[in-house]
Amino acid sequence: MKVLYVFEEIDAGERHQLLGMVDHGLDVRVICDPAAKYQDDLRRAGITVEHIQWGGRIDREAIARVRAIVLHEKPALVHVFVKIALSNVIRAIRDLPPKLVAYRGIVGNLHWLNPSSRRSFLNRRVDAIICVCEAIRQDLLANRFLGWRVPMEKVVTIHKGHYADFWRKPPLRLSDYGVPGDGPVIGCVAQMRKRKGIPALIHALEQLENPRARLVLVGDVADREVARCIRQSPARDRIHQLGWQDDASRIAGAFDIFVLPALRREGLPRAVIEAMCQNVPPVVTRAGGSPELVEDGVSGLVVPPGDADALAGALGSLLSNPEARRRMGQAAEQRIRECFTPERTVRETLALYEKLTGWRPAQAAPALAQQG
């Protein structure tokens, strides 16, 4: 069966999934941004890659390109991984045969009265929506207005899998980024929007009994409150902002504790997965899919969102107990290795494809997805 996958960027989990689909006999075609990662890996596996840069939710040139590709390739199914592409693909194949699968990676921000939502995920042309965590699925099912709703049979949860060994690279030295090595390091990797809850993390740092604990923030800052909190914090000399870093995952591998203090709308946060793969114990909030990743008290700690006191308590308990950090770090890596595998993602996605098209996958060939 031929499947056309539509991306903007391609992340490591999607790379693993695409190569796994080839292993199971799918004839895979990919549309992505010209600068997307992992294209050489895809081509080596025999995957044809086309380039489209999405100019907006209604990009007439892109719509014509997609329609021409679908008419020529005749895929049985089109699987779209990015919202900006989804509205264009819907227009491109509105009257064509392929089944349409959409990927949803974030909670909320869909409304039946919003034309953008009705032209994308809430559009009837979408045959199935894959939710990267159960929290997203439940949010979609609860999204109702008058008689409008998403049918339950259209929505499925499939966690995006990662190979733990893919992220197990030597951690970078924090001293190279100006972080002194005189105490334990609490770290966060995120695009720091308001919903990421960074001010609560700063207030939690201030409450810690350990005066040598440092906080490292990696990522672009889009919340002005972060700068204000740092400026006014009595712990400001122990807070280090590294900005966006290409090697963020290797920096996270050097943390003693990884924290994602999100307030809402999380999907299945990749930064948490990357840290867990490197034996770094995570502290997360009950926001979106984070509690689906982390078993509270086993592979990390889970606290209420926006609660600086609870966050400080969780961080303090791990800082004072190196053995607990070691044990939870090992359990975190084991959880990703056993429960969030690309093989499981591929298997569950193929089951959905079979339901939509009747096509049955072949036995997997030697695992191309694990190479590299």
TrEMBL record:
* Its EC number(s): 2.4.-.-
GO molecular function annotations of the record: glycosyltransferase activity
Q: Which Pfam families match?
A: Glyco_trans_4_4, Glycos_transf_1
Q: What class of enzyme is it?
A: transferase
Q: Does the keyword Nuclease apply?
A: no
Annotated ranges, domain Glycosyltransferase subfamily 4-like N-terminal: 18-159
**Classification via InterPro entries:** Glyco_trans_1, Glyco_trans_4-like_N
Keywords on this record?
A: Glycosyltransferase, Transferase
- Residue ranges annotated for the Glycosyl transferase family domain, each copy included: 178-335
* Segments crossing the lipid bilayer: none
CDD domains tied to this protein: GT4_PimA-like
Query: Which biological process terms from the Gene Ontology are attached to this UniProt entry?
Result: carbohydrate derivative metabolic process
Please give the name of this protein: Glycosyltransferase family 4 protein
Query: Could you tell me which species this protein originates from?
Result: Natronospira elongata
